[in-house]
Write a structure and sequence with these properties.
Four copies of one chain form a homotetramer.
Chain A (H helix, E strand, L loop, with lengths): L15 E6 L6 H12 L3 E7 L4 H10 L11 H10 L6 E4 L6 H10 L3 E4 L7 H14 L3 E3 L7 H11 L6 E9 L13 H6 L2 H4 L4 H17 L3 E9 L10 E8 L4 E7 L8 E8 L2 E6 L5 E6 L4 E5 L7 H4 L12 H20 L13 H19 L5 E2 L4
């Protein structure tokens, strides 16, 4: 086999009791969340509201080894019942279309249950602010699955920037290009496409909400800087599409840093092309999601170095969360699972009334609010023909 | 997110009861097996012989949520006790150094328990033949974790070759180069290195046994051809090393196909560089383990096409076992988990007395025997200064 | 060696008599022009104004095998003398800093001598328009060395777009990133840096003029579309720098096509990173200058194909101008030489009073005018905080 | 443009008078030699024996601007006439099929004319030894165009090995794979294929002579080590082919270094795939001809560095012979031209009775002899079923 041992066992050894809302048969992201929860053996799925149809809810639950009495058809009923059980769920994963995040998160938080929620947070600034307030009020853990921030080499990049490896930053180039909406697949009923291109469910933005928010979050996450203003030009290239499917954005960050952000779902030849490049006075970094195990670092005056996850010059921030040695590719699921693993540490600490041992950089409800500001800022700027729109400070 | 839904749930919904022998704290491959078993929720780990020290066995078991009475210190005791329990394990995973595979596999097979065993199978041809006989006699499932054959694009390559996309094959180039043994790490006590370079535990071969067997299996697995003869030149470059750490081999396959196989663990700049290239009258294929989601196919007279897992021209053999859409990288753990998923189908069918629904191409005890023949053939050829040595037909 | 023969000899067999202005010892681009002129044996360098210092002019001329009486110290004297000689130069190459292009080009055109001129054309719109008028009036050939348009795979991309391989275009992403000005090298006297960052010589723009114009030209050249408006955000990151060293631009093209253009000379880890990506309804193209022999083409619904220069699916537009078969890399000099070869065909035809046999897509004085409009549009937009600025139709 | 100036002018400024034998219209390698000779302006082509047919010889000569009286139809007549002229050629380039190299080289050497000759040197060991003796006897310069040794990053690799960057070498992997002979193109009359697959012209070996010798030369050139023994398995995959089109070879070098060499012309998906990897105690190098401007260097314990030609960590051996700054790709022709440039230095020095200023590592007649030994050693080993064959020390 190979050289390193997989990372050591987590400090706290209890499996958290997990519930899931949404994510029934055929759902893409629900299955991903479940694998992510299982990977490190920190969760046990014990309850779900997988369908509003009783028959289908029970069948889906059986498929997932849920007890029949914990297969709910209504999320409010589930929150109430689980809160009342002595063995009720510790945490719920919300994996529905965007417009349902707000009422669901609210219901579970009010029932005293920690929340892991898919992105984007919610569809309006008002909802986002209300959720921020509720999380603060309840003191519960709220984790937003900006899963790309769980990739070890993204953590490495963040650590390198923080440690000054790039010196003062100058330029951030973020792009996230896909091609699966290059034709009007929503008109043929493709389930993933239908709700994402429907304003009543997906919100005011299409590609910007679906993938642009990931790129935005990652740019801020890695750079440690806040975007202060943006100027956006949105397009809907596919005839009949009601939301944007392509976006070009000029970005201004704190400290005079500049950049662009490009999000697209209509560019044939790209697949899940999330790429982040950062350039500073002392060096540059280049990372591509489709080759997530390597990070290219070029110090000023030196050749480019290919830093491999868990290999030479891989920092503890990346190596310690690696499950495999270098050369054994980890991927999307492991990055997603990292969010779950870090969330488990935090939730377990909360349940036991102690500090989480190491404060992993998990995306929070506040990051969700920023994402909603970003979405609305972009839409507003584009409506005003790419006028500059300021983003509020967090 | 993205376009496809993750693959549908498996036909049979029961979790198999899994035991593990070896794989205690600090073990690399034990942790990998456990994640692989968990990924698709087809197994539940319920028993283990994780250490011969009672204290450590219990601690390691607690870490893995095992009941105290199922934390064994002796594999024979475990086989007997589990076979006697009504809720005893269905299958055991053997994840120890090579020299223990034989007695352990024998014990569990004789106790009527299915076996998943790490590679290489055993250290001698005699042991391998005895195991083959025992598996046939008991009718139990025996799966060898040549995990790289679980990668979707390896399954794709195999399917393309079988379908004639390359025409009659001509050349197979297999290489597996690492660098983690470039220095005498075994002398500093690195646990993974120590037993692999110790003939009493690793067997007659070093790199050939550890990684050469993977490359050999993959070459035969993808090509559908058997190696008939080989001529090998082995080296031990690192002073004091007792087994080979580099091997160059001329290969002859059925039907006049020729190739080379290179295995090394001392080549700085390679990491886990398993690469397979096949060339035929009508086209060529190129796959590299470190970028496992793509397969390069060049038809005669056409440009090279980059086929992505679950993307255009991805065959059902690859797409149907994908957990994620194209562009969302899967890696080593998913490939390993595929072996476990396919094994679960087969074992569940055996337990229920029916045929496994689709006969996935799982590595078997017979493949293990071939691997042992390969190891001994290589060592013999090298002793005779790279004379040709025939491999027996399977 | 290999399979194809190099491309056949050009139709017209005469060597053009070439003069050069600028490009004395230590000049980068002068040496490039000379190699480009020599490569296909269509020119003979016979005269030059390589320095205003008589001693240095003669020494530099001797180095280049010029006769002493054709080593001039003044471009006007050179234009007059050469025009008067029966064996005077047919064509002059102008390879000086930008601010000298206008008077020099004017002098040679007025003397009836064809011109090959480095880019950008001139520093002001007025000069550019005057040159356009003069070229039209004289009927002489004027070629602008937007050399990247001479790369075979750029010609291929242009031909594919024109033939509809991408369908209706949607998005054009152009980027040209370098890092050689990441520090204030101009303050240490680096010759190439000094004049490029000096407004009196480089003009109103820095990186935009030096490399942004290449990216702009290429985007229009390949797409066949005109940019109609742009919104630009310019920066001068290096303290003390007087011109832009980084530029982010939103681009709007004819037919609703959108894009961005990024030019930078301060991004460590990029070298000469000119990349062009085009996406249309039916497919996408991706080309990178540092790997110029391949073009990635992804048809809608198919895998990406790596089209190699002179290999399968290489069109006549690329193969016919290849000097080498596929796999034998051509580079920057060959692309530059293509401009010279095409210019030779055109000039020879003009000298002989006939049509140039195939009308190669050479960059003209009108392209130079567009580049100047682009530069001034970008600068104006940035001054107005990234307001949209229209570009005039050509 | 960019940062560096092109390399400075050579010390000696005279153009050598060059003759060419072979290389008439349609010849591939003749055109390459001519461009290589022109690139740095160190040669003037003044005479040729381009065809044995007077009409065609004159037409071809006119195409190349040769005076009619220097268009010969017979190489012996040319050697005699040119030797007799006061302005006769200084050096001849021999660019014919292999079997003609010997009589031609002999004729020109005997006439006192320096020789640049294509590879492989000749077809038999006897001829090779005779040529070595003749070159020594005459004291003339004899350069063999193992052109790949002219690539800057190959020179860099050689210098790094010599300087100990890899420590003591262990493994050398050389491969040169093409696909242009994957079908029986010689049967359709393809000129390049016909003579290469004809034993009376190509010699005893096919792919081994045509491209294997390049890989062999490069392995020794870069490593500074001599191959001492080899064991080869040759194939002729294409029905009707009379010479090998694929070869797998086990290699043993001085100092216990081991390797393989693979040469093939039938592997679809490879193009001109010459790759060289060297591994030593302290690091590894990886170079691929199709991306010749970069060299990957991995020091033991560090990440892989991508060293770019003329970029950071590019040594003088590479930077000083670069015509362009990093990021501006040089290719095959520039590498070939380097051989010509170095040859010009050496020949000019010889003509002027002085030492060549820096002794560039040019391939010599002795290297040619080694190549012939290699060819015959491979063929003999393969005839004896891959028995070990020793190569004589040089």
């Amino acid at each position: 086999m190979s050289q390193n041992s997989a990372s050591s066992a987590p400090a706290s050894r209890r499996r958290l009791r997990l519930g899931m809302v949404g994510g029934g048969p055929g759902a893409f992201i629900g299955a991903v969340h479940r694998i992510a929860a299982r990977l490190d053996d920190r969760y046990e799925l014990v309850a779900g509201a997988l369908s509003s149809d009783p028959e289908r809810a029970r069948a889906a639950g059986a498929e997932l080894f849920l007890a029949p009495d914990r297969c709910y058809t209504d999320f409010r009923a589930m929150a109430a019942a689980e809160a009342a059980r002595p063995d009720g769920i510790d945490v719920v994963a919300i994996v529905t279309p965007n417009h349902l995040h707000y009422p669901m998160a609210t219901a579970f938080l009010e029932a005293g249950i920690h929340v892991i929620c898919d992105k984007p947070l919610v569809n309006t600034v008002e909802e986002a602010e209300a959720l921020v307030a509720l999380v603060r009020e309840t003191g519960l853990v709220f984790v937003l699955t900006h899963n790309y921030s769980g990739y070890p080499m993204i953590r490495q990049a963040r650590a390198m920037v923080a440690a000054g490896a790039l010196g003062a930053l100058r330029v951030i180039q973020a792009e996230y290009a896909q091609d699966w909406l290059a034709t009007a697949v929503e008109q043929s009923g493709q389930k993933q496409a239908v709700w994402r291109t429907d304003p009543t469910r997906g919100g005011v933005a299409g590609s910007i909400g679906d993938i642009g928010t990931h790129a935005f979050h990652l740019a801020e996450f890695v750079s440690g800087l806040r975007c202060t203003a943006l100027a956006a030009d949105l397009q809907s290239f596919v005839p009949g599409r009601r939301l944007d499917d392509n976006a070009h954005i000029l970005m201004r960050y704190e400290s005079g840093v500049r950049g662009t952000l490009w999000a697209s779902q209509v560019c044939t030849g790209t697949t899940n092309g999330l790429r982040l490049r950062l350039f500073g006075e002392a060096g540059g970094l280049d990372w591509h999601q489709e080759q997530p195990n390597e990070l290219r670092f070029t110090p000023l005056g030196g050749p480019t170095r290919i830093i491999q996850r868990a290999g030479p010059e891989s920092l503890p921030e990346a190596t310690d969360i690696s499950r495999l040695p270098a050369g054994h590719p980890e991927g999307y699921l492991e990055g997603f699972a990292q969010i779950y693993r870090d969330a488990a540490d935090r939730i377990a600490a909360a349940l036991e009334g102690r500090q989480a041992p190491t404060e992993a950089p998990l995306p929070t409800v506040e990051d969700g609010l920023r994402g909603v500001h970003f979405i609305h800022g972009v839409v507003e700027s584009s409506r005003r023909d790419a006028a500059w729109v300021s983003l509020p400070a967090p």
